[in-house]
Amino acid sequence: MRPGWLRALPRRLWGGPAAPQLCRSLCQRPARVPPAEGGTSGGDTSGGDTSGGDTSGGGTSGGDTPRTSEWHRRFHKIWENDPQPRGHPQSPVGGGATSGGATPKAPLRHLRSYRSRREDAHGDAAGDRDAHGDPGDPGDPGAAFTAALEELARSPPGRGGRLALVEAALAALPARGAGRSLAAYKALLRLLPRGAWVPRGAVQRLLFPFPRQQECGLRLLECMERHGVMPDAETRFLLLGVFGPRSRPLRKLQRMQFWLPRLRHLDPHPLPPRLRPGLAAARLGLQRIATEPGATVTLVQRPVPESGDDEGSVQPYILSSQSPEQRELLARHGPTRPVFVEGPFPLWLRGTLLKYFVLRGDPLPPHLRDPPPDPERSFYFPLRLELELERGPWDDEDFQVDRVEEGPVLALCVAGAGDRRTLGRWLAALQRHNPALGRVPVLFRLTGSGAEPPEGPPPPGWARGPPGPRRWSPPRMGVSPRGAPGNKGWTDGVRVPLFFGGVLVFLGGLQVFWVVFGVVSCFFGGVL
Amino acid sequence: MALAVMLLNGASFHGGCCRPKVLLSSLGPLLSNSKLYSSYRRPGAEPEKKLSWQNADFSFKKAIDHLKTQLSLLKKETQDYLKGPGGHALSQHLLEQTRVLWQFRSQEDLNKWVISSDVEIGGKSKVYIKLGRNNQAALLYGTLNTEVPRDGETQYSGYCSMRSRPAVGSFNRKKYYDWSNFNSLYLRVRGDGRPWMVNIYTDPYFSHQKDDLYTYFMFTRGGPYWEEIQIPFSKFFLSSRGRVQDNQHPVWLDKIRTLGFTIGDKVDGPFQLEIDFIGLLNDRAHKEKFAYEAYDKNTPV
């Protein structure tokens, strides 16, 4: 508390024009709860929660380390008593005249974002929107954590140790699964005292008031930003109450509210917000990469067990995709040239890694390819009509570079495992619709532990599993993979030396203004 | 005063330093303990005991060789200057709509790029680059590991990047790329579905701005087909040390030093990116000057 002589000073010296009124409005909290009632007042909250009881006199022991502060003890008691997640939006707040001075009486529904209100209505707080891939438990750990924090906010033990608890809870938030839940962050903010950390006046604001507290607020917002949680107006209201206007957390919130909506929808190929794991993700992945018109995805083999994407599973899933054009191409592929099964290639769906394999044909040498069709082969009507009004015939947007020569893609497959039996099953399924595949030699080009030479940097050897055989061709033996005409096989790369010295520091050049001076320094400098 | 500045700048003896260290080395013992302008030192790493000017190597033969190469570079530069702007004919400069900047067909094309990862700060990500099949594309691959190095300072980790070497003229002078004829970056890549960041570094004059990067995102789709990604320069926003800045302005296209690709999407696991070529495009249908508001954003909260 401020000493009496400071309170007697005229307002102008310490407080700005509007600060007193604002601080007064923000400091509207009831009197501090006397220690004797601290235990019993916490017991009349919702649910069968007996967190009151035997807390040793609620007053804070000032010399405690944060580890053993009253706040920590109370929180652990609540956590061990397994708080009920908030099932309905308006939970009754424990008795009016008691503790809970730090919390507003009712959730400010008009300030909350649509998403947080929907979370309440559906009762699930955390795990629905998955961060990177698979949602874990549907909201259970995060919701319980949030409920514990809210419980603690309703019955705070005292005045010390708050910041330490909030910092510890913030560090534990992602581990508890509540990193994506806005309600958890708001519950954390409600634990902080309102008005005590608001600087009074411009002078105090200038000197970075309450540094550790403001840094805690910043870290909280940083955690939100990292998990992609958008703060809403209620978060702003809570931060305003704790830190006051023109503070660093408020400034950061303003930036978040400016930039996150702009940067959120930049992905031209967005994934659905929720990704169902297992076969559904694989199907989505295959649909994503099989962009040929008319491509159809067929399930060749169901996974056994259901999440059968490991090597050791009984039966990994196989999904195959082929379009009519590809079938036609494969039918025309002569039996003298081989087709290649290449893979496994990685495909990431936000946090899920899938493996896909490609059946590629052999590219023809340039002199054997069909010439491109003559654009003037019909004089009666144009065969291609491009009505791009902003780009005219004077625009030449072709690059003077040879594109990569690769054979045509004949089929795609996403499989749980890349071993010989699985790929064989895939090819057998393809052969049902493409009888030509039975006559064509199939060569396997799998990147695995044994397919790459040992020297040089390690290959993309993330595909675990035994390498497939070098050749598999039922009717007749084809050419060896290394000797195939026109294909030089894998080349060894040389590792470019790592650039030491930090991300943003470059090997700058020597600043020489005159050439003559540079010549002179050649002789005196030696190694330049 | 000006002479003193020039002497300071010219009097450093080796090329392995960045601009701030020049000042440091010239004033020698005065600032040897000062961390004012020192470059990044990884937490836990020992400070360098040897001062930068002590690394000088006086060898007459090497100097003559070096002088020869620099003079030949200077000759080539003069010829380019006489040919026309940017070393091309004037008609090409005025009419060109596309330009190929980097393509990956041989090892020396790969040597124009530098790869780095968070190993610099003590992390565990790995990154490698090699030529793809038939020397037709570059394959940048590796593993991202978001485990934070335990040095007490670092909060986040897990990034890998590939940056082009800055262009250097004769006598190690800085050269800047001039891309003012174009308005989009054109990339022909084949990714694995992970989002990348494209960074443009303009190497500003003032060292306060040395961390300024113009950034945008490149979202790959994955799959066996090549993607042609066009990113207009009006979409690049200004960021510094990973933080988006309040005062935004469009990137100056005539003072570009390096281009870089970074992956840091907080997902542990392997990544892969194949790049066919990187070029520039003047898309006449793209009329946007700048995508973000340039007014003052620090309004009263």
From TrEMBL, chain B:
Which Gene Ontology molecular-function terms are recorded? unfolded protein binding
User: Does the keyword section mention Oxidoreductase?
Assistant: no
Q: Which domain of life is it from?
A: Eukaryota
GO BP: any one term: mitochondrial electron transport, NADH to ubiquinone
**Matches recorded under InterPro entries:** Galactose-bd-like_sf, NADH-UbQ_OxRdtase-assoc_prot30, NDUFAF1
Q: Where is the NADH:ubiquinone oxidoreductase intermediate-associated protein domain?
A: 102-275
Cellular compartments per GO CC: mitochondrion
Q: What is this protein called?
A: Complex I intermediate-associated protein 30, mitochondrial
Recorded source organism is: Lonchura striata (white-rumped munia)
